[in-house]
Amino acid sequence: MIKIRFPYQEKFNQKVSVVGDGTIRCVGIGPVRAAGRTAQDLEQQLRQDYGKIIKNPELTVVVEAANVKITELKKAITTAPRGQSRLVPIKPDGTIDLPYVGEVFVAGKTVHESKQMLDARYSEEDLKEIEVTVQTLEFAPKRVYVMGEVWAPGMLETNRPLTLAQAIIHQGGPTPRALRSKILLVRRQYLPVPEALVFDMEQVLNATQPTEFGLMPKGSIWRWDPYLADGDIIWVPPTQLALANDWIDQFFTKGIRSVFPYSGVVGMNFGYNIYEPSQTVKTRLIGPPNVNAQFGP
């Protein structure tokens, strides 16, 4: 709140407040920029502006309440158990709500980056005296969805770093039907369009390298095991043989047989004879063969 007093032109005496755009509305001259100025600077500016309508104006400026926003902000954030601080949850869209600045997107930012951004936002609102301290008190669990050929498909929650292979192992591991060389990871966190990559778990688990002691496990291949982000989807596909078995089961067992039920037994007999070679046959090693047979009639 600002008082403007004219000793010789009392009709211009007034009490004004700084509005949201940082100006005051004065009688006779309209808006004047006041935010960020001292009382002396504002007084000099008003003398210049009123000099256009008053000859040699004399006036004084008295600041009754400096930056009412700060007082209001203190009231807004003051709580009994925590003093001048406020617990602010991060909403699903990655934003938080704060007095005067409204919604601020903080998802994916560090504590230091969030502090710098909030200080800048409050400075834009003519609250340069405000210094924001950001602390992370609780982390939301990371949710990963595993589906396909694993023993326990479903949602996995964790508060610790987790890799793709660890998530599959946590869900019981791949089943015998799983195609472990083409596991799909789909990610869309903070991305306008989802992205996907193919993970070869077979290669990671069975990778070897030649050494002086023979083939040894290649531990460095695990660097290709990516860490998971919140909302990632893991799809473990079936093999072609598993798909063929499913097709046969759907088409014949559950399809044709359900339409044309039948029952019966189909039997097949296979027989064979073993002939022992004659032990009395003599063969000649030289000369023409003995043919004791008659050809023709």
Notable features of this structure?
wza like fold, disordered C terminus, 3-stranded antiparallel sheet, 5-stranded mixed sheet, 22% strand, Outer membrane lipoprotein wza fold like, 6 helices, single chain, alpha+beta, 297 residues
Describe the structure.
By secondary structure, the chain is α+β, with helices and mostly antiparallel strands. It has helices spanning 39-50, 68-77, 111-124, 164-170, 201-206, 240-259, and strands at 2-5, 14-16, 23-26, 30-33, 60-63, 78-79, 83-84, 95-98, 102-105, 142-148, 154-158, 183-187, 195-199, 208-211, 214-217, 233-236. The chain has three domains: 2-63, 2-Layer Sandwich (wza like fold); 78-124, wza like fold, CATH 3.30.1950; 142-240, Outer membrane lipoprotein wza domain like (Outer membrane lipoprotein wza fold like, Roll), CATH 3.10.560. The protein is 23% helix and 22% strand. A five-stranded mixed β-sheet has the order 11-10-16-12-13, covered by helices on one side. A three-stranded antiparallel β-sheet has the order 2-1-5. It is elongated and about 140 Å long. The chain starts with a strand and ends in a 38-residue tail after the last helix. Mean pLDDT is 81; it is low at 289-297.
Kindly summarize this structure in a few lines.
This protein has 297 residues and is α+β, with helices and mostly antiparallel strands.
Architecture blueprint of SSEs:
Layout: E1 2-5, E2 14-16, E3 23-26, E4 30-33, H1 39-50, E5 60-63, H2 68-77, E6 78-79, E7 83-84, E8 95-98, E9 102-105, H3 111-124, E10 142-148, E11 154-158, H4 164-170, E12 183-187, E13 195-199, H5 201-206, E14 208-211, E15 214-217, E16 233-236, H6 240-259
